[in-house]
Amino acid sequence: MTAEYAHPAETLILGMGFFIGIMTFCTHLILLWAWVLVRLLETIDVHSGYDIPWINPFHLIPGYAGSRYHDFHHQNFTGNYASTFTWWDRMFGTDQQYKEFKQLRKRLASDKIGHISSKKTE
Questions:
Q1: Rounded to whole angstroms, how far apart are CA atoms 39 and 17?
Q2: What pTM was estimated for this model as a whole?
């Protein structure tokens, strides 16, 4: 199985969030299906590679990571461990490389704009 990259204990711990939600909130079959739907939509959003905050209701949740944040984790593997919420990464400083990456991209984008506008024509 190529998707199983984690230690079995990590898989159990991460899976507990899904099942704790079911045990806590799902007192009816409709609530169970609603919970499963929300978790599936969140997983699709994080792994889709697209970040569209203006149509995604998950971005209304404070600390929601989103696709850009999680994609950096898959590119780098040494930070952004949170798959949904960013407060753990902020608390332990494991999002520092992502912050530096965002600043670098912003700086490169502003340098390109400045470079184009100051280009001499012959």
A1: 10
A2: 0.61
